[in-house]
Task: inverse folding
């Protein structure tokens, strides 16, 4: 019997392991994996970039780099983020091994066992796993189609005996809910946090994946609002706009937070892969990102439209959802009498997987939703997948009706 630490007891870690296994299953029609489709990756562009690198830069790909990140990439990111209105001149950028490492570093920097973190409900399961690993006490706030419930947030903050260390939110094309915070809700959130000492951790992996150019302004980050009395740490990622295998993320914070984060990063892995940082930097510097993003937006919009059409065609009328304006996800709402885990058992038996609502509840209980990811779906499989899912839902609905009548 091993004397394992408390850190291995995250209940959501098992969900993640199962999710990754389901997402990579070859024989299944998978709505599960929150990832790009493998056929969409910019393989040719990356080949061209690497082959055109000077010999000395190629050698540098294989070497250690500074803990804070490859300096040319930091410079390219400053330009990229400045165009989004993020105050890079007043902040420091730390390159991380995916944005999940940024979330982990921030948690390690601020959380002692028993400290409070506020989250949305539902919440990105990867972040939940990190927060649990460090022994945080989680308090979740419901969200609606416009963002976090402001009244519930105020009530939660007032009811707590000690101040939460931070509030974690994913305001743009939320994972799993697919929503985008309205500008009004973003402003209200900052007003609530003003003067409380609660840090806002703004996780923004999807804002470049809007479907309509006219709605691009909705993706404006709260970090760019210029609010002085709310400390905001902004995290971003190349996983959804270049490729998860690059494991490239970053965090933007104050100098003081950056310095402590750099120490933690050094102890974790010394530095993020120089190889991937150099390729990522060249992708930005050679102005390949914007044309690639236009291609991705078109592809994901087409997949979303197909999924939306088939859901409207085949799903029972008791099922509802908000049509997303960008990102990867549709979040189905079920009647209260049925659970997504029951639907999952029926669905997986017939070759379709998705992610249950319970996975994204910080308490692991609420199960009246299910997440469908359209980004990884082959377009020709979407209709068949929805038909199988619909039949599973109808069967569970019939069974629940029989149970009630009996």
Result:
């Amino acid at each position: 019997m091993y004397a394992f630490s408390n850190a291995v007891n995250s209940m959501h870690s098992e969900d993640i392991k199962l999710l990754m296994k389901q997402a990579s299953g070859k024989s299944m029609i998978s709505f599960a994996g929150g990832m790009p489709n493998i056929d969409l990756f910019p393989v040719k562009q990356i080949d061209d970039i690497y082959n055109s690198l000077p010999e000395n830069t190629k050698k540098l790909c294989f070497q250690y780099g500074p803990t804070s990140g490859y300096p040319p990439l930091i410079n390219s990111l400053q330009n990229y983020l400045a165009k989004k209105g993020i105050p890079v001149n007043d902040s420091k950028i730390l390159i991380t091994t995916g944005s999940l490492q940024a979330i982990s570093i921030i948690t390690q920097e601020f959380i002692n066992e028993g400290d409070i973190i506020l989250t949305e409900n539902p919440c990105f399961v990867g972040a939940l796993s990190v927060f649990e690993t460090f022994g945080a006490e989680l308090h979740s706030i419901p969200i609606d189609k416009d963002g976090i419930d402001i009244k519930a947030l105020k009530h939660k903050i007032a009811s707590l005996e000690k101040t939460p260390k931070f509030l974690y939110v994913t305001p743009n094309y939320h994972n799993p809910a697919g929503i985008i915070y309205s500008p009004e809700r973003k402003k209200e959130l900052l007003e609530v946090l003003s003067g409380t000492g609660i840090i806002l951790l703004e996780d923004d992996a999807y804002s470049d994946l809007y479907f309509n150019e006219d709605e691009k302004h909705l993706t404006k980050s709260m970090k760019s609002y210029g609010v002085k009395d709310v400390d905001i740490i902004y995290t971003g990622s190349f996983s959804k706009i270049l490729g998860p295998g690059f494991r490239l993320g970053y965090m933007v914070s104050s100098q003081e937070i950056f310095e402590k984060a750099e120490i933690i990063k050094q102890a974790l892995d010394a530095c993020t892969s120089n190889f991937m940082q150099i390729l990522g930097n060249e992708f930005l510097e050679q102005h390949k990102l914007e044309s690639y993003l236009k291609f991705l937006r078109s592809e994901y919009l087409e997949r979303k439209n197909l999924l939306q059409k088939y859901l409207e065609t085949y799903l029972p009328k008791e099922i509802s959802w908000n049509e997303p304006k960008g990102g990867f996800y549709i979040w189905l709402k079920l009647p209260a009498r049925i659970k997504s885990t029951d639907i999952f058992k029926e669905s997986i038996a017939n070759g379709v997987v998705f992610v249950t609502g319970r996975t994204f509840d910080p308490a692991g209980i609420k199960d009246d939703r299910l997440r469908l990811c359209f980004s990884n779906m082959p377009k020709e499989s979407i209709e068949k997948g929805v038909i199988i899912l619909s039949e599973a839902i109808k069967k569970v609905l019939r069974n629940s009706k029989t149970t009630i009548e009996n």
Observations:
- Residues 318 and 335 are 6 Å apart (CA to CA).
